[in-house]
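Sanity check

After download, print the first record. It should look like this:
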Amino acid sequence: MAKILPIESEGRPTGWIFFCPACGCGHKFCTADAHTQDWPVWTLTGMPDAPTVRASVKYEFEQDGRQVLCHSFITNGNIEYCADCTHDLSGKTVPIPEFPGNYDL
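Expected structure tokens:
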């Protein structure tokens, strides 16, 4: 299975998603071919073996009653977590995992 998956709605691309092991959920980003007015545009290269995404991907959300900030770069198939993350992988680099088999997009 791919490490970054396309997302479609009504047969039209709406973005891409990767599984974040720090947050335990998927993080979405949009490229020019899947751009919607509500999202900025990222570039995606190196697919499928060593994806690189630019610019950084930043999510702020509530999880289990606490605010989470997840900010990362994806480079050559690795997630490089920025130091401003509020989770345990802050400042670390890990390979992008495959999506868990039971994960529903």
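If your output differs, re-run the checksum step. Summary of this record's structure: The radius of gyration is 13 Å.
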